[in-house]
């Protein structure tokens, strides 16, 4: 199947050149360019590369065809997004010229690169003159390559000297990362190779819909079950993943922690706890043992909705093998108590003696293309490259030396992603923002509020490949190269560093993110230290990360190009990399993993008479994230044209709504208008909305900005909602 060669222009960007006010004034569309006009040097030979989207980073080959590049699958196959990813390369819907807004409420018009970068730099300088370096903020993304993430962090700290930088990984991996740090002293999503799950006697998958979010992984799970393994899936919906499970635990959203504590209670009662392992490799067990003593099955059944026999069956399955793997994903983590929930599953893994044993363990399923590397090299508010901490004097000294600055010139840790967005344009918050690799107008929680904060900025600069819902609000839009048009490395969900190769030149008018950062730094009077060649940036990253937790010092483009499989840490050139962590010791000072006692939380937003339903959000197979890219690819919008609200027929009957009817879903933050999709695969007390769409179909008009106290993860997966028939709603 090759879907990329024909691009229809259905004019989905009609509102595109709107004025920056939230209301928006639609104006002229840019003239669509045909593929032939776009690119002077088409692809001439097949190039092996990796998919631009999720953290599996499937290998693929780009091959020339009559009109454009097409994708061929590498080993393991691709999902529909991977297959169609080349369609955006020669699409008239991509940006091919910088845009600059005339005046604060004027229109976006095409501009040259020098003018656009001058305007952006002037905006940053002006903000800084008004209120100091923290008046400029930076927002990055987990899809950016390691080189970009590293240089963006350096740009913030060295060129802007701002503390105000964070990124969308805060909305993605932050709870799992914080949980892993607490227990293992190190966060690498999977501390073992992904293929291990194919050999596992039992896999407990909590809040992941792999069948739609990482379809090729299902091959490992098929192999696992064909060899007699058990698969337990914890999800309020019977997803395609849950349908493939041996046991589906259909929890009430937000109760995973109670479930984990309940499983641990039963493991104790049934004598499955590994006392020798606990003695030899952990600390903190007595507190956890006490903490779960109130989690008896009847109690847990009441909280979670999972029956006592199912709880017992799950514990039996986990204990029946010496190769068990526990995996968490966004369903369990994107909560205002996501870190504690992760800890509860880590406690279970430790009590069963799983972590740091070959073939067993706990891991989290990292989401974005570079969701792993993107959280290691300094685009996070509190972080320096190599997973170093910004508040650690030794870390500051090391990185400052690599950057040629005085350690005292490095800023302190800044605000987390949502807190940063929330502060934009406010007293004491940034009045200018550089945004690279995220579309928060669609993807941030309480998005209407976030949109208003973005509109309050004096200067918004967005680097993107398309005119996203956020880019359309910008004062300066910088059109950047796509994955196949530049070299760069990503680090996949198992901590393996991969080289994405440049297959073709970017179209005229398009530059790379690294060029953007170099051009801006130059205009901010920092003429050196911002190379725009990816390999030069990577070599600097190696030095900056050397000696850190995520040590890339031994990884080079040459080694990767030669096909070496290198997982960090890889501290020197002859080092083989580290596919499996924690075999001898954990990364804590005493080498032991920490149990962390956690208790089921209060509900963040209890349901009541006005908002009686539990709303959760997530993904569908055909679209990626905010949809900025995939809503511009015809085969994908044909497969999934609109958002919807999934609800159980029992609930539909009570609400008197029919299948396919347009309803208003509302919460304390706002409303969305959606078609119903009736299915008995969802709990009758829960409704589900995918978040890939904008405007009146935007799920994040509904979500809450309650944040986890440790990770600052928003509560994307739970808030209280109501559904009204539209006739009644607009009465
Ligand atoms: N098609 C597609 N694939 C993607 C992406 C995409 O946008 N589209 N994005 C990538 C990224 S960045 C990420 S982070 C991953 C995310 O991958 P997943 O974590 O698999 O994705 P989600 O759909 O967000 O959530 C998974 C499941 O959590 C369930 N859930 C909701 N609330 C709860 C709860 O309280 N407890 C439990 N146990 N489950 C709950 C939902 O019903 C849903 O089926 O996917 C990656 N792959
Ligand atoms: N309600 C709800 N909201 C959610 C979630 C949820 O489950 N429910 N999940 C959250 C999660 S896990 C995530 S990861 C976030 C993701 O949400 P976003 O951060 O919005 O992620 P994307 O849609 O991938 O946005 C990436 C943007 O960068 C552009 N882009 C792609 N590649 C590049 C590049 O190389 N350079 C530059 N400059 N731009 C590029 C794309 O065109 C797009 O506009 O959403 C979060 N929001
Ligand atoms: S599973 Fe992820 S990496 Fe693989 S083809 Fe699909 S989107 Fe791309
Ligand atoms: Mo994510």
Overview of the molecule:
With 731 residues, this protein is α/β, with parallel strands linked by helices. It has four domains: 256 residues, Rossmann fold (3-Layer(aba) Sandwich); 54 residues, N-terminal domain of TfIIb, CATH 2.20.25; 191 residues, Dimethylsulfoxide Reductase, domain 2; 113 residues, Barwin-like endoglucanases, CATH 2.40.40.20. The protein is 29% helix and 17% strand. It has 25 helices and 30 strands. The chain has a seven-stranded mixed sheet, covered by helices on one side. A hairpin with a 3-residue loop joins strand 14 and strand 15. Helix 9 packs antiparallel against helix 12. The longest helix has 19 residues. The chain is globular, with a radius of gyration of 25 Å. The structure holds ligand MGD (2 copies), iron/sulfur cluster (SF4) and molybdenum atom. One ligand MGD binds next to helix 18, strand 17 and strand 23.
Architecture of the largest domain, CATH level 2? 3-Layer(aba) Sandwich
Work out the strand percent: 15-25%
Helix content: 25-40%
**Name of the CATH first level of the largest domain:** Alpha Beta
Bound molecule kinds, no repeats: ligand MGD, iron/sulfur cluster, molybdenum atom
How does the helix and strand content classify structurally? Answer: alpha/beta
Number of beta-strand segments: 30
Oligomeric state of the chains present here: single chain
